[in-house]
Specification:
Layout lengths: L1 H19 L2 H14 L5 H27 L11 H24 L4 H20 L7 H10 L6 H20 L5 H22 L10
Helix pairs in contact: 1-7, 2-3, 2-6, 3-4, 4-5, 5-8, 6-7, 6-8
């Protein structure tokens, strides 16, 4: 009985972590926290809020609709055809948002964060014949780059990324190999973001 209760507790904890660490929630929240803490302009803040609500809301709405209409078995999109569909949807969403922001002359970090998000999803899509890279994990690590050079903020998100990695394993959504590759992919993407923008999300303070 005690083992059953422990297992149930672990599953509940893992589900909560997966929900908190969902890219549609964690990415915009981290970016918004970064720009708000660096005295970004009102226009930049408005762009981040509107863009975050649109991207996050569209992703959640699309996933729930697929489940409700019987096309998917779960919002996690774990099956191969589900994974392919969500990847294509996200790529169109991220690359489209990046193109729109370029046309509207938005700050480089905003454009780059969306473009790199699309690239991260594209990598997962290309790897799908061999493995199912965890977007939860890769985006969590990528999100940490938005808080750089704040060591505390970056470390908090990286610790959360490790916890999310455990949750994906505990829920049997991914293997160790898939989680490790996701960690590496998120780290590379975050490094590219910081190198290209100078000091991550903090560079928005001057826009």
């Amino acid at each position: 009985m005690q083992l059953v209760e422990q297992h149930l507790s672990s599953v509940i904890t893992a589900r909560v972590l997966s929900l908190v660490g969902h890219p549609a929630l964690l990415m915009p929240a981290t970016f918004l926290f970064s720009v708000a803490g660096n005295d970004a302009s009102a226009l930049t803040l408005q762009t981040v809020v509107v863009g975050s609500v649109f991207v996050g809301g569209s992703t959640i709405a699309y996933s729930w609709r697929q489940v409700r209409e019987g096309r998917w078995s779960h919002v996690d999109a774990s099956l191969p055809h589900e994974r392919s569909q969500i990847n294509l949807f996200l790529m169109a969403l991220f690359f489209g948002a990046a193109a729109l922001m370029v046309a509207l002359d938005q700050p480089q970090p905003l454009v780059l964060s969306s473009a790199l998000s699309g690239a991260l999803v594209a990598l997962g899509h290309l790897l799908r014949p061999w493995l199912k890279m965890s977007l939860h994990v890769s985006f969590a690590v990528f999100a940490a780059s938005f808080l750089w050079p704040s060591m505390v903020g970056t470390l908090v998100i990286l610790i959360l990324a490790i916890a999310i990695s455990w949750s994906r394993l505990a829920l049997a959504r991914h293997t160790w190999q898939e989680v490790i590759i996701a960690l590496l992919a998120g780290a590379v993407t975050g490094t590219v973001f910081n190198l290209a923008t100078g000091i991550g999300g903090a560079c928005l303070s001057s826009t």
